[in-house]
Amino acid sequence: MSELENKAIISKQASFATALLDDKTKNAALESVRLALISNKERIFEANSADLARSESEGLDGPLLKRLRFDENKLSDVTSGIQSLMSLEDPVGKIKLHTTLDDDLELFRVTCPIGVIGVIFESRPDALVQIATLCLKSGNAVFLKGGREASETNRVLYEIIRDASYSSGIPEGWINLLTSRDEVNAMLGLSDYIDLIIPRGSNAFVQHIMKNTTIPVMGHADGVCHTYVDEFADETKAIKIVVDAKTQYVSVCNATETVLVHESLKDTLLPKILNALEDKGVTVHMEDEVTDWHHEYLDYEVSVKIVRSVDEAIDHINRYGSGHTDAIITENFDRSEYYMSKVDSGSVLLNCSTRFADGFRYGFGAEVGISTSKLHARGPVGLEGLVSYKYKLYGNGHIVADYASGEKKFKHIRRDI
Amino acid sequence: MSELENKAIISKQASFATALLDDKTKNAALESVRLALISNKERIFEANSADLARSESEGLDGPLLKRLRFDENKLSDVTSGIQSLMSLEDPVGKIKLHTTLDDDLELFRVTCPIGVIGVIFESRPDALVQIATLCLKSGNAVFLKGGREASETNRVLYEIIRDASYSSGIPEGWINLLTSRDEVNAMLGLSDYIDLIIPRGSNAFVQHIMKNTTIPVMGHADGVCHTYVDEFADETKAIKIVVDAKTQYVSVCNATETVLVHESLKDTLLPKILNALEDKGVTVHMEDEVTDWHHEYLDYEVSVKIVRSVDEAIDHINRYGSGHTDAIITENFDRSEYYMSKVDSGSVLLNCSTRFADGFRYGFGAEVGISTSKLHARGPVGLEGLVSYKYKLYGNGHIVADYASGEKKFKHIRRDI
Known about the structure:
The structure is a homodimer.
Chain A: H1 3-18, H2 23-39, H3 41-57, H4 62-68, H5 72-87, E1 95-102, E2 105-113, E3 116-120, H6 126-137, E4 141-145, H7 151-167, E5 175-177, H8 181-187, E6 196-199, H9 203-211, E7 225-229, H10 235-247, E8 256-262, H11 269-279, E9 283-286, E10 301-307, H12 310-320, E11 325-329, H13 333-342, E12 347-352, E13 369-371, E14 379-381, E15 387-398, H14 401-404, E16 413-414
Parallel strand pairs in A: 3-4, 3-6, 4-5, 7-8, 7-11, 8-10, 9-10, 11-12
Antiparallel strand pairs in A: 1-2, 1-16, 2-15, 13-14
C-alpha cells in the first residue's frame, strides 16, 4: 500500500469523526487556527519571501507574483475570513425535510458532510487557509494541493492549521498536504476513500482531472462570460458595467469575454462602449475577426458581436458560453426575466457586472470554487456545497409487508421544519 | 451527424422551452397523458400480451414475467401515480435563498430543471410512465430506454405520452425513445446535449455506464443493505423486521443482504431469527462460510455475522456496504443516534425494515431511482433530485470596482423566503 493510500484510509476514518463534531468544537478549533496564524506570522512571511524570491528568479510575471504574496494584508483577510466563517450557521445536522409516513414512523432528511475532499488550487496561498477552514466548518476531511510557486508558504500554513486543529481536538488525519503532481494523479485513483475532487486552474488542467478519475469532480473548466447590451439598455449603466466586467480584473473566470450588442445600438451606444474599452487598453475583436467564440482571453481583449434579438443573444450564449455567468443590460423587466430564465448558466445578472459572481460577494463568507455543473452545487460554492444529506427513518417495528398487503396505509404528513 | 445526435440537439432546444412551462400547463399535459393512457388501454394490453408471449417463449422466469405484465392493476397504479404527481408542488422556480447584497442589488437562488436526462431502466414498463411524467413535471426533456423484453409495450406507452403531451403544448422533442444498446452507447458520448444519465439495472451494467461517459451519472451500482440487531433490541420487532427486510421482496436493491447480530444475543435471539428466516425458505450463510461481504444475493439467501460492538457493526457497514440503506434494531436511543450518525449511507433506519427506502414510501410520489452518490441527490430520488438551481442577481448599474476600492460595502442581508 502506498503512503498516500494509507493517508487516505486514515483521512476517511477521521472524516467519520469530523462528521460528528458539534459547532462549538469546530468554532473553537477555527479560533485556535486564527490565533496560531497570527502568532506564527513571521514564520509565514519568511516562507513566503523564499517563495517570492525563487519565483522572481524563475521569471514569474508581476500579476502572478502579486497573487503569490502573503503579507499583513493577506493575513488580515484570512483571519477576518475565519471570523466570518465562525459566525455562519453550522451547515451540518440541519433538518431539510420531515414527513410522518405513518404513526410512529418518522422520516427526516438531515445534512451531513461529504466526507473526504481533494482540492487542487492555484498559486494564491491564502486559498489554502480558506479551503481548509471551509472544510473544517463543514465537517469534511481534506487533501490540499497548491501551486508549486507557493510550496514553502503552503507547507508552513498547512503545519500551523494542522497543529492548531489537532490541539483543539479535531481528529488527526482530517487535513493533508500533497506536494507533487504525481501525488495528485495517484489521488485520482483513490475512489474508495476520496468522495469529491475540486480542481481549480486552467481549462486543460481541469479537463485532465475530469478525464482521469471516477471520483465526482466539482468545478469549472472555463469561464466564457457574456454581457448582452439590450436595445432597452441605459447608456450610462451599460458603459460602466461593460468596462467593469471586462477590465476590473482580467485574469479571472468571471470577467466578461464576449459583449453582445443589439443591432439598434450599432451606431449609437456601441461606439461609446468600444471607446470606453479602448481607453482602458482593451483590444476589441469585432465579430468578423473572431474565429472561436469559445475562447477565454483572460486578458485585455474582448469579442464583440451584434445580434438582431434577445433570442439570438440567448442562443449564442447557450451555444458558446460555459454556463458560468452571463449578464443583460436593459431597462425592460420582461426582457430581463426572459433572458434570465432562458440563459442556461449558474449565474444570470441584470444591470450589474459579471465580476459579482463570487462566493464572498454573494455573502457565502468564502468559496471553494465556482461550479458550472448542474448537479449538486452550481455557481459560487460555499459551505452549503460541501454538505450532502442522509435520510433518517425512525420506526417502531414497522415492516413493509403490512403496507404491501393493504393492511396499513401511508399517511405522508409533511411537517413544518 | 447521426440521427441520435440530431434528436439530442432538438431535445436540448425543447428543454430550454420546457424549463419555462408553468405548473398549470404541465398539469394539464399530465392530465391529458392520464386520459390518453386510459382511452388507449386495449392498445397497451395488446402490445404487452405480445411482449409476454415472446418473453415466455424465450424462457423468461416467473418473477420477471410478473414485472413485465401491464394490466388493469398496473394501469390503475400509473394513472393514480400521475394524479398524485399533479398534486405535488411545482419543483421549478422555487426561491431557495434571497440576500440583499447592497441597496438595489438583490440575489436569488431559484430552482430550474436539469435539462436533458437519459434514463435506462429495467423490464417494468410502468417505470416508463413514472419516469416520463416525473421529467415532465420537473420541466426536463428525456431519453428513455427500457428493457428489451418490454419493447412493444414501451413503444406504445411512449407514443401515447408523446402524442398527448404534444397536443397539450409541450414542446416537440421533449420525449424520446431509444430502442437499442447501440443507441445507449452512442448517447453516452453526447455530453454537449445530455446533462444527466440515470441507469437502473445490474451492478455490471451501471459500472459500464459510469466508466464510459463524462456525463454525470446518478444512481447506484448495488444495494448491499444491512440490518444490525443490537444488544438492546426488542425480540419481537427484531424477528419481524429481519424477516421483512430479507424476504418481503428479495430481488430488489433495498432488501437486506447481511444481518449483523450483537454477540450477547448469540444463544438467545439469534437462533430465533435464524429459525424465522429458514421458515421463509432463506438459506443462511454464517460468517465462516462467507467469502465476499460485498455480495448482493437478490435471492432467498443471507449472510450473518456476529459483532462485539456497535462500532464493529458500523465499521463493517462502512467498509462492505454500498452506502444504500442500513437499519439498526435497538431500544436504546443513544445507541441508535450514534449508529445513524456514523453509518455513511443514504438511508439509515431505526426499528423498521430496509424495504422502506423507496420514493413512494418516503412520500415523494414516485422515484427515478435511488442514488448512493453523496453529490446532488442521495437516497430515493423524486422531483427534487431532477432540478438544479441558478443564481439571479438584479442590479441597477452596480460595478465591482466600487467595492474593490472600498467606496461601497456589501450589506449581505439574508431575507426570509
